């Protein structure tokens, strides 16, 4: 049985504002094993990126992060000093950010930026680091790697910059990679190439991968497990097959209805939509946050929402005990 790389229980992220406290992430639970891909999916503002940044320890000092359990390879991340966390981050756990043009430093060459992490965490010479960087650029599909190392970020296309970010995350051969919407700014053809690359690298290096996305089409191609987030909570989680075959939360069904299905959705036929907007999470938040947008809402939705088991590891938060099918 594969070992558990990351174990998160009761993760919260609170942001103090002038009008009160924004409860951006509320009681997140998930676990990830070596060799698995977890996709965290949901609308913009649901807390996906903040969850990732909290795990990586990259949130500002004013932002309050809490958790009942936050363990990476058995180590309690909550007990680590900033220096210890820095030693772990970039070495055993790495992150691929959403927009590489703002993540890469325009004043340094690609080679210098790739070598920095390796030289920080390993005792290697600049020449050895450059050789490793060139090898990884080739592995992520960049040709003429040696010449690319001398270039600056603005000299590369968006797809090449994203491949550089992937190579940078792999420099120290980490056990966990968190990819925060790595295909958002890319065209469809390049998106498919990047996703295929991530899947291939995960299998080859037997690492754990968390992919943050709002695109369920991406999830269907790459995920082993799925966590659906809404208003700072995971409202449904389970295997990709369980989520797509038997969605049990109205929000998950709403997201799936927005996707055209080959062979079923006719050309020109309107797609589904979810009415309303994500509610404010400033101040006290009670009941189901989705109830103002849900056709199935009733008085019970304003009370404490139970966590239910649909089957096996398939969990969802809803007052309805049975799967919702034709309704909605």
Largest sheet: 8 strands, mixed
End-to-end Cα distance, whole Å, is 40 Å
Structural class: alpha/beta
Structural domains: how many: 1
- Using the CA coordinates, give the radius of gyration: 21 Å
SSE succession: EEEHEEEHEHHHHHEHEHEEHHEE
Please tell me what the overall shape is. Answer: globular
Kindly state the number of beta strands.
13
- The poorly predicted ranges are 323-328
The tally of helices reads: 11
* Average of per-residue pLDDT values: 90
The CATH architecture classification is: 3-Layer(aba) Sandwich
What is the CATH domain class? Alpha Beta
CATH superfamily: P-loop containing nucleotide triphosphate hydrolases
Helix content: 25-40%
The side-by-side strand order for the widest beta sheet comes to 7-8-9-3-10-11-13-12
CATH level 3 topology: Rossmann fold
**Residue share in β-strands:** 15-25%
GO molecular function: ATP binding; ATP hydrolysis activity
Family: Belongs to the ABC transporter superfamily.
Membrane topology: Peripheral membrane protein
GO cellular component, one term: plasma membrane
Structure commentary:
- One of its GO terms (biological process) is transmembrane transport.
- The chain has 328 residues and is of the alpha/beta class.
- It has a single domain, classed as 3-Layer(aba) Sandwich (Rossmann fold), CATH 3.40.50.
- The chain is 31% helix and 24% strand.
- It contains 11 helices and 13 strands.
- The strands form 2 sheets. It has an 8-stranded mixed beta sheet, sandwiched between helices. Strands 1, 2, 4, 5 and 6 form a 5-stranded antiparallel beta sheet that branches.
- Strand 1 and strand 2 form a beta hairpin.
- The protein is globular.
């Amino acid at each position: 049985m594969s070992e558990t790389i990351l174990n998160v229980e009761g993760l919260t992220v609170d942001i103090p504002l002038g009008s009160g406290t924004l409860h951006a992430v509320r009681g997140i639970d998930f676990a990830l094993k070596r060799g698995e891909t977890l996709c965290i999916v949901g609308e913009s503002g649901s807390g996906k990126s903040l969850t990732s940044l909290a795990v990586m320890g990259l949130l500002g000092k004013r932002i309050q992060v809490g958790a009942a359990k936050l363990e990476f390879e058995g180590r309690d991340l909550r007990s680590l000093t900033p220096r210890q966390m820095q030693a772990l981050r970039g070495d055993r756990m790495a992150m691929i950010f959403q927009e590489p043009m703002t993540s890469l430093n325009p004043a340094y060459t690609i080679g210098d930026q790739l070598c920095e992490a390796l030289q920080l965490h390993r005792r290697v010479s600049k020449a050895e680091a450059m050789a490793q960087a060139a090898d990884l650029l080739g592995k992520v599909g960049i040709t003429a790697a040696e010449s690319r190392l001398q270039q600056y970020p603005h000299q590369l296309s968006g797809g090449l910059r994203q491949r550089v970010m992937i190579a940078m995350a792999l420099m120290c051969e980490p056990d966990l990679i968190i990819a925060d919407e790595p295909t958002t700014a890319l065209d469809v053809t390049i998106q498919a190439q990047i996703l295929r690359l991530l899947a291939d690298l995960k299998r080859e290096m037997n690492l754990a991968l968390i992919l943050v996305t709002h695109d369920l089409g991406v999830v269907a191609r790459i995920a082993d497990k799925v966590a659906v987030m809404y208003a700072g909570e995971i409202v449904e989680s389970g295997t990709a097959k369980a989520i797509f075959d038997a969605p049990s939360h109205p929000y998950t069904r709403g997201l799936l209805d927005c996707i055209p299905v080959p062979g079923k959705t006719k050309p020109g036929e309107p797609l589904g939509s979810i009415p309303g907007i994500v509610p404010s999470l400033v101040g006290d938040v009670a009941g189901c946050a989705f109830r103002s947008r849900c056709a199935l809402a009733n008085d019970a939705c304003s009370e404490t929402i139970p966590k239910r088991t649909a089957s096996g590891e398939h969990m969802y938060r809803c007052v309805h005990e049975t799967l919702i099918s034709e309704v909605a």
